[in-house]
Amino acid sequence: MRRASAEDLPFLQHLYAETRAAELRATGWPQALCERFVADQFVLQHTHYVRRYADADFLVLQLEARAIGRLYLQREASDDLIIDIALLAEVRGRGVGSALIIHIQQNAARTDRGVRLHVDLRNEAAYRLYLRLGFRDTGVEGAYRGMRWDANVS
C-alpha cells in the first residue's frame, strides 16, 4: 500500500469504471455516453471523499510495482471506517480483499477499535465476504447496508 497522489487519478478512474461496468452495460447506452457518465461520476465521488474524509488515508494497493486497487480508510478514536475498497477485476476472488480486511481488523484490534463500512445492496459477494470475516449487519440506509466488526467480539 502507498498513499495515492494526483498521478494516480487516471488509474483510480479506470478502477472506478471497472466497478461500474456491468451496471452500465445493462443501460444499453452508447459507449461514449457511458464513458462520460463514469468520468463525471468519478469526479463527483472523488471530490466528495476528499472533502468529507479529509483526514482519511487514501491508499493505492499494489502487487509488486503495479496498482491493483484502492483502500480509503479513516481511523477514528472508536472505530476505523472503511470508506471504500476496490480491486481490479483480474485480482478479485484471489484472497486479496480478505487479506486486506483481516489486516485492517488486526490493526484495529490492537487499540480495541471496531471497523465500520457500508456495502452496496447489489454487491452480494462483498456482503458475504464481510459476514465470513465477522462483520454484522447494522441496517440499510438508502442503497447501502451498514456493517460493523467489533474487536472484542470476533
Looking at the structure, the CATH topology is Aminopeptidase
Q: Poorly predicted ranges (pLDDT <50, ≥5 residues)?
A: none
Which CATH architecture would you pick?
Answer: 3-Layer(aba) Sandwich
Oligomeric category: single chain
Tally of DSSP helical segments: 4
Strands in their spatial order, largest beta sheet? 1-2-3-4-5-7-6
Domains (count): 1
Overall pLDDT score? 94
- Overall shape: it is globular
Can you give the helix content as a percent range? 40-55%
Write down the CATH class: Alpha Beta
* Computed Rg: 16 Å
The profile of the biggest β sheet is: 7 strands, mixed
Give the topology string: H per helix, E per strand.
Answer: EHHEEEHEHEE
Name the beta content range: 25-35%
Name of the CATH superfamily? Gcn5-related N-acetyltransferase (GNAT)
Task: Output the structural class.
Answer: alpha+beta
Strand element count: 7
Q: Keywords, please?
A:
154 residues, seven-stranded mixed β-sheet, alpha+beta, 31% strand, Aminopeptidase, Acyl_CoA_acyltransferase, globular, GNAT_dom
Q: How would you summarize the topology of this molecule?
A:
Elements: E1 2-3, H1 9-25, H2 31-52, E2 57-63, E3 66-75, E4 79-87, H3 96-110, E5 114-120, H4 124-132, E6 136-141, E7 144-149
Parallel strand pairs: 4-5
Antiparallel strand pairs: 1-2, 2-3, 3-4, 5-7, 6-7
Helix pairs in contact: 1-2
